[in-house]
Amino acid sequence: MSDPRTDLAWFSLFSMKGFGPKRLHALRRAAQVAGLEVTDLPAMAREGLDPHTLGLGAATIEALRNVSIDSRQRDFTHLRESGVAVVHLDHPGYPSALVQRMGDSAPPVLFCKGTIAILAAPGIALVGSRHASPPALEIARATAHAIACAGMNVISGYAGGIDTQAHLGALEADGTTTLVLSSGIMDFSRKPVFAHVRWEGNVLAISQFDPNMKWNARSAMVRNKLACALAQAVLVVESGVHRPGKMSGTFDTGLSALKLGVPLFVIEPRTLPSCPPGNTELIKRGGTAVAPADAVAAIMADRRVRCSASPADDHDRQLSLL
């Protein structure tokens, strides 16, 4: 279990202007070297901490002096009362794979609602167009169902189209699914399309953004990288390609997987009526082509993919915050 006071401190730092991911990662490293907690730093800065003592710049020390942990107590309490957990770099549930893959770009704080144990579950990210063709939607749902039956978590972005079908397929198999949001966690709600499936215990919603932030196109692109970094593998079902001034979100996710070193699998374009050009291009760039019927078997057989049973299957280890 995490310490609520530490959770509050991380939330306060995250909320302060000027404390982006790189600075928060640097603060944590500095504190670890000195045998301190990040929570110690604001008070030390106000007491005249020498910038050179921890290898921190004068601007960072000055920013720390302005941090008031208790000033965010009411907002933090509201989050907790709403069932939201603040999972930060020092939290026992924070996925170490994020830092391993993303370095200092890894979100230092994740706002989570649902079954926290799912964060540790090996998962496959299923991604595709919001306006996917009917055959692609069917493939997404059936594939997610098969992934869940194989004991893996299904990760997707909670958008329309492929994302929704991926989450539905997993939940209809009574499996688990992670909803990676492109808006703040307080903007999250259960969509009516999920009314017929088991939700409590099987779902984790996460956001790396300010809890009250609304959706925007930029945050959707940022969210794509998090979805990849959380996954053991990424499967692209149907994708467009980059056009001048407009990047397909799915195509961007595929590129992110390749850059992060996450195994990328792509549904063979010829198996879809639209023969999606993004699929063709991602295969050219290093994605592994798979036929819909063979996709899950191919992913599970790949030596790069860890396929141990999901810890979320053990209900004694679940921490449900819904």
Comma- or semicolon-separated keywords:
322 residues; Rossmann fold; nine-stranded mixed sheet; 12% strand
Explain this structure.
The chain has 322 residues and is α/β, with parallel strands linked by helices. It folds into 2 domains: 4-82; 116-316, Rossmann fold, CATH 3.40.50.450. It is built from 12 helices and 9 strands. The protein has a 9-stranded mixed beta sheet with strand order 1-2-6-5-4-3-7-8-9, with helices on both faces. Helix 8 links the parallel strand 4 (153-156) and strand 5.
Write the layout of secondary structure elements.
Blueprint (H helix, E strand, L loop, with lengths): L3 H12 L5 H13 L7 H6 L11 H8 L7 H9 L3 E4 L7 H7 L6 E6 L8 E5 L6 H16 L3 E4 L5 H11 L4 E4 L22 E5 L9 H14 L2 E4 L12 H12 L3 E4 L9 H8 L3 E3 L4 H7 L21
Parallel strand pairs: 3-4, 3-7, 4-5, 5-6, 7-8, 8-9
Antiparallel strand pairs: 1-2, 2-6
Helix pairs in contact: 7-8, 9-10
